[in-house]
Hints:
Structural class: alpha+beta
Order of helices and strands: HEHHEEHEHEE
Helix content: 25-40%
Distance between the termini: 26 Å
Amino acid sequence: MNQWKHNSYSKKKVRGLGRRYRAFSKYIDEQLDSLPTPGNIDPYYTGYTSLHLSFSKFFTDSKKIPINARRFFVQKIINGVQHLLNLRTEEQEEYRIFCIFNLSDLEGSSIQILFTKKGMESFYQGFFGTEIEETPFLRLLHTQNLKEKWGINIPKELDVKGYEPIDTEDEYEGQYETWFIGRLN
């Protein structure tokens, strides 16, 4: 959560932000112009596809980058998920489309498209699956913080789930909150 309250402590202008905004918008629009189709037509196919979005490809991750750039990045991803959900046909109604981003590191952001419900179940098993028996994540219930504190507009049709690691040692060190926004049910 600290990264969203980031103060750059710099009065210098960050050059090229408008160009970076336009380049990222163009990239998202090109990538999300149509809904991908599954590579396998087997009914037991639990496949998926994803679009990994690199924050550092468009915005250098430094203290000079304003919070508005991070907010724009996340909002554009959420709008892309909504666009893909609107593109679905009746036979694609089962597709689960959502975005994932971590507040501590926008570099790992992605848009996931799961073609079957089994794909969603296997995704969650992989997300929560660890070598220890206890689940390493705690479900967050304060989803309004995304809208109120960070100024992110989330359409009513989209589901929001947030998770926070219980133990921030070892493999989850430096991670704060992971958010899933899209069609999750």
